[in-house]
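This entry is passed on directly below:
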Amino acid sequence: MKKITLIALLLSFSMAFSYAQKVTVDLDKTVDMSKYKSFSFLGWQDNSDKILNDLDKQRLLEAFQNEFNIREIKEDKEDPDMDISLYIVVNKETSTTAYTNYMGGGFGRGYYGGAYGGGHSTTTYSENDYLAGTLVIDVYDPDTKKLIWEAVATGTVSEKPSKREKGIPKSVSKLMKKFPVEPVKK
């Protein structure tokens, strides 16, 4: 796939994703997430960032940094409390829709009794190709090397850069609403 198309997918978590984005999370319930005060990005799993351009990678990283910062969790590359890795997958999908137009008959009375006129219908099918994207964030405890939190966001990708620019922060914000540490109110 083209690099821009995949970027569009991930970042379509933006406008299109803002509305249709699905987020699921998993959490180690034995871990007290409030004890984590710093993070470090481990990087992109399986080099999945190769489908993104540099602008979209930067937008994603800044959006995640902002979400952690508003929770007063600061980036620390030397001695972090948690390690974070990101993963992106984009697939070409096809949706099929059908529309049936029914022209019904009727019942009427005439001179010689009732008459029923049959109807007919026409069904039209259409297919639409689109990109479906998945963004995964994994959070690890660097001491135990255990996964402590994971969020997966899926949605349809927009190929317009302007929508990605606005949509990426919105999509990351929606994903991070499920993070067990709430933003700090000031």
Observations:
- The chain has four helices and eight strands.
